[in-house]
Amino acid sequence: MTIYKAPVEDVTFLLNDVFQVDRYNNLTGFSDATADVRAAIFDEAAKLAEQVLHPLNHSGDLEGCTRHDDGSVTTPKGFKEAFKQFADGGWIGLAAPEEYGGQGLPALLSQTVSEFMSSANMAFGMYGGLTQGAMAALLVHGTPEQKKAFVPNMVTGKWTGTMNLTEPQCGTDLGLMRTKAVKQADGTYEITGTKIFISGGEQDLTENIVHLVLARIEGAPAGMKGVSLFVVPKMKINADGSLGGPNGVSCGSIEHKMGIHANSTCVLNFDNAVGDLVGAENKGMEAMFVMMNEARLGVGVQGLSQSEVAYQNAVAYAKDRLQGRSISGVKAPDKPADPIIVHPDVRRTLMSIRAFNEGARALVVWTSLKSDVAHRSDDPKEREAADDHMGLLTPVIKGVLTDQGFANAVAAQQMFGGHGFIVETGVEQFVRDARITMLYEGANGIQALDLVGRKLGRAGGRAITTFFNEVAAFTKENATNEAMKPFIAPLGAAVKDLQQATMWLMQNAMAKPDNAGAASTDYMHLFGLVAIGYMWARMAKVAQDKLAESGEQPYLKSKLVTGRFFMERMLPETALRLSRIQSGADSMMELSAEAF
Amino acid sequence: MTIYKAPVEDVTFLLNDVFQVDRYNNLTGFSDATADVRAAIFDEAAKLAEQVLHPLNHSGDLEGCTRHDDGSVTTPKGFKEAFKQFADGGWIGLAAPEEYGGQGLPALLSQTVSEFMSSANMAFGMYGGLTQGAMAALLVHGTPEQKKAFVPNMVTGKWTGTMNLTEPQCGTDLGLMRTKAVKQADGTYEITGTKIFISGGEQDLTENIVHLVLARIEGAPAGMKGVSLFVVPKMKINADGSLGGPNGVSCGSIEHKMGIHANSTCVLNFDNAVGDLVGAENKGMEAMFVMMNEARLGVGVQGLSQSEVAYQNAVAYAKDRLQGRSISGVKAPDKPADPIIVHPDVRRTLMSIRAFNEGARALVVWTSLKSDVAHRSDDPKEREAADDHMGLLTPVIKGVLTDQGFANAVAAQQMFGGHGFIVETGVEQFVRDARITMLYEGANGIQALDLVGRKLGRAGGRAITTFFNEVAAFTKENATNEAMKPFIAPLGAAVKDLQQATMWLMQNAMAKPDNAGAASTDYMHLFGLVAIGYMWARMAKVAQDKLAESGEQPYLKSKLVTGRFFMERMLPETALRLSRIQSGADSMMELSAEAF
Predict the structure, then answer these.
(1) Do A512 and A560 lie in a common domain?
(2) A293 falls in which pLDDT band (50, 70, 90)?
(3) Measured between beta carbons, which residues in chain A are less than 8 angstroms from residue B558?
(4) Which residue, B125, B149, B127, is CA-closest to B138?
(5) Which residue from B minimizes the CA distance to A511?
(6) Residue B583 lies in a domain
(7) Last residue in a domain, options B447, B469, B489
């Protein structure tokens, strides 16, 4: 039996103290999200996650989804009722515009509570998460009629949404897509083709599913430039909004997967299914990117979420399991052995996960706040800067939080010894579930290429320059603060490594593009380390100030210890990443393909 | 459908050229193992692994083992026939003494082919591997009667063997053991208690199973000092060697596990089971350590084995899967996209796994050779030095080859994108199977403590001093060799890091033992990097010499490129490990347990 407790105190510290979101009351929805409202939302979300969703996590994994001969899919026991509760609670539309029935609150809040839901039950959380992504694409690129037809029913969770990109022969390279769309006399399109890996592609939670589908219009240019986006509901919709008959889309099979068993991953067959064009012809990739960026941030949060729930269970076990005696002297003389949390190597593991999680959570909050600024600010300059930040940090968050989130789930499992390998213990599920986050929404190698090949150089490197300037301003501001020295000095060294790596790329990737590819993953992780290091420095500053004001506060004390651990033990990895980057592409490209 | 091809060329290079095993013909069994005999053995082992065992790997995982109501267990379809073939081929007794029906060949050969078997089908390989471990304990600590009664039937695979250590309340800390042994009038003991996690504890492959069981004799001292070892056959054995009735041991359940589904992991209930004492009363731990050291080396090989088979499948996929175009220009103009092996980030991943595997394989061969010297040399000094080496390197091989072997399986899975998550693709099994190697036979944190707390300081640090001297002699010998510079320089830097870390431990762990625990895992990995780096330098030297002699040889050319990759990209991790070690225990021990 696994446990989960939502980190309400931590997100409250981040929103209230570190990022002081009350300063953003000029943005739509923010003035409604007062500290009291936020606290109420976090408490409700925590209750739902802990009491409704988490109890279904292990049973959902064991039971999985079942496809029946008629193509219908049953989700695990309890999911339907839980989804109703989740939908009725207004969680899907928390940040959606009020005109479509949403609550119009900051997206930041939605992202923050999504960590709770995902920690509690990642497979469950995906049904709502993908619905939010599909909604976002429709809100940006849909016609007023499309928004009206679909969004309100998605906001309420009456319908869910999906993303249909992958085909057997193309995942990363969507230019190879074959699904075709044929324009009909009435302006609609008939979509035909096979999509794979469609999360929530079929389910028994809702009466309808809104599929967003990439396809190629007859006669469109080859490659990515000939791809368009369509909205294809599972059940057709009548002019009055009521449900019509079934559309030409069916679930051919569901995948047997390593994890997220409770989310149905479908092969969807489109057979002259009726769809509506979303956005302009052949501009499908742009529309899809709206969904994908949203989804990538969400997947990063999933990585963090599995790291967090795995950590909590490892901590509980480490406090409880008696094995051996402390190397520095018996700690529990009344017991046959000490709890394993006395052992430094166990501590090292737990502290490493914890330090990562708290830093990563800050990074997510920071970036989600930028997302609200990018979408809701009146000031174009502010919007641009926030959008730059999103572009730069989204691949980092996706890649780093999932790579490390998975590694952390494995490390947490390690604390259980052999018991960690046993299904009933429950932690091995966190590992299996976390594994998908490194693969979907663009495998992490693609995130690294997106960062190095696209985001870094955009607009003359404007985004990273802003990032460097902000960190430099912070370190300068705190340069003479003695108490901040354990944070500022290591951060300074790490930033220097990132600057050198950036410089190296500028000097070496133009002449030889393989150098960029060879550096990409290490650069992404180097960036992640610096960004999380910066988060820790900011958190430490706030914690120190609050402590000075209000005296002894265990939460703040722990925060500072954990931050120092990150700075001493984890941040210095930047030097290794830099040295790898600087070694270039030669040794990895020298062998011929045949030599492998 | 996964593939596997045994690395015969690589092990041949290691045995013939790098370690020149023909120089050891003074050791029993070595003169029989001529180059021709070795080649024949490798070919036969490869055939068995590739054609018989690997085809059962995925089906075995899917089907798993089944326990029936009467406590009997069925292994997956095909396992019984395959085990007969495996046993009849003489693979279990390859290195066992001829007087017990073994072939008396070097243990080195047995260890080398065990990688093939384990890559092909790890769950299958365990049945034989544990039998070899149990046999080793009986050969060292058993009475002549016990050896005669059990070993010949284990050599032929007529019976298998198991190790019974773990109980629900004790894994690492065997002092907490409760299983009890009561001496009977006839000198035998009645064993009563429950053991868990017993690999191959019940099966339908053989007519009998030889359980080696740790238990506490009535009135024995508390803790580890009161633990004795017993041999408890599943079926009693009559005086004439024929099978008697069932003994009081039964399989209560089989575990549901993350991986190695095809190996039955049993809860074994001992209920007044008749057993024979092995070795002296209360000296069970010593006897068990013979098995455990053997087993730990074997588990290290399992880690390598999953890394290897995962690598081979990732390579095949990377050459086949078309996605995107090379960043340095189109490579396959006749195809809709380039195979993904053109992408540097894919190369980086494949080269990292390969460089680790080849270096780790050398380390295993080197250490297995020392095992033969330790057991078979006439010279006590030579035996002592070899035993030192084994003691020092066994925890390193177990910990590093499994931590990294697992990480490599994950990295290989990553090459498949979303397809890697699908059960039918087959690579996710390598990840799940590899995961156990970090946990069993002493979780890797325990290996690190064994290294730092026990092995390092033993006999005044004699073992590590010998290691440092050997590496220093090699670097000195090649100091002026220009071609060896790319190997000698990084190796020198890495050795310096290891020396500094060792010094730091000597200076800081005495006064504050937590510093040793805090450093242990990083020290183990630092040691592993240096040891593998040394292996690469030695391989490079031999490859260069052979190339100079014989001209163009693709295998040797690839070896040198792969070695350079290791030196440039992977070995520099030693600096990070050192910096972590030097940061000490303070930041990880500061929080109270309640603060977690």
Answers:
(1) yes
(2) confident
(3) 591, 595
(4) B149
(5) B328
(6) yes
(7) B447
A328–B406 CB contact, under 8 Å: no
- Checking if the pLDDT of B288 tops 90, the result is no
Residues A488 and A531 in one domain: yes
Closest CB to B344: pick one of A423, A589, A591.
A589
Q: Are A82 and A51 in contact (CB under 8 A)?
A: no
* Residue in A337, A414, A515 closest to B438 by CB: A414
CA of A373 vs chain B CAs: smallest distance (Å):
33
Mean pLDDT, to the nearest integer, of A277-302? Answer: 90
Shared domain for B507 and B536, answered yes or no, is yes
Number of Cβ within 10 Å of residue A512's Cβ equals 16
Q: Does the beta-carbon distance from A568 to B583 stay under 8 Å?
A: yes
A357/A491 same-domain check: no
Q: Quick check: is A441 catalytic?
A: yes
Query: Same domain, yes or no, for A429 and A482?
Result: no
Instruction: Give the confidence band of A125 by pLDDT, cuts at 50, 70, 90.
Output: very high
Which are the contacts of A353, defined by CB distance < 8 A and separation ≥ 6?
A: A307, A310, A311, A314, A408, A411, A412
Cβ pair B342:A593 closer than 8 A: yes
Distance from CA of A445 to the nearest CA of B (A): 7
**What residues have CB less than 8 Å from B57, skipping those under 6 apart?**
B2, B120, B121, B122, B123, B124, B262, B426, B429
pLDDT value at A417 more than 80: yes
Query: Over 80: is that where the pLDDT of A291 sits?
Result: no
Q: Which residues of A touch B318 (CB under 8 A)?
A: 596
B327/A453 CB distance under 8 A: yes
Distance CA A349, CA B199 (A): 28
For B63-96, the pLDDT digits (tens) are 999 999 999 999 999 999 999 999 999 999 999 9
Find chain A residues with C-beta within 8 A of B513's C-beta: 327-328
- Looking at the fold, whether A443 and A464 belong to one and the same domain comes out as no
Q: How many domains does chain A have?
A: 2
Closest approach of chain B CAs to the CA of A5, in angstroms?
13
CA distances from B219 to A27, B454, B548 (A): 76, 29, 68
CA distance B204 to B79: 9
Residue B274 counted as domain residue: no
Token pair for residue A574? 């930047």
Does some domain include residue B114?
no
pLDDT 10s digits, A106-120: 999 999 999 999 999
Whether pLDDT at A294 is above 90: no
The answer to whether the CB atoms of A414 and B439 lie below 8 A apart is yes
CATH of the domain at A432: 1.20.140.10
pLDDT by residue (tens digit) across B299-330? 999 999 999 999 999 999 999 999 999 988 99
User: Using one digit for the tens of pLDDT, what is the confidence trace for A129-163?
Assistant: 999 999 999 999 999 999 999 999 999 999 999 99
Range of the domain at B372: 288-447
CA angle centred on A477, ends A475 and A482, rounded to 5°: 80
Chain A contact probe: residue of B165, B320, B327 with most A CBs at under 10 A: B327
- Of A382, A441, A482, A573, which one is the catalytic site residue? A441
**CA–CA gap between residue B466 and residue B472 (Å, rounded):** 10
Task: Say yes or no: B392 and B499 in one domain.
Answer: no
**A contacts of B588 (beta carbons < 8 Å):** 344, 347-348, 351, 565, 569
Tell if the CB–CB gap between B588 and A344 is shorter than 8 Å: yes
Cβ-Cβ contacts under 8 Å, B442 against chain A: none
The active-site residue out of B218, B308, B441, B573 is B441
Decide which of A415, A447, A479 is a domain's last residue: A447
pTM exceeds 0.95 for this model:
yes
Domain membership of residue A248 (yes or no) is no
pLDDT confidence band for B550 (50 / 70 / 90): confident
Contact B67, B15 (CB under 8 A): no
Where b means 16+ CB within 10 Å and e means fewer, A61-75 reads bebbbebeeebebbb
Whether residues A402 and A334 share a domain: the answer is yes
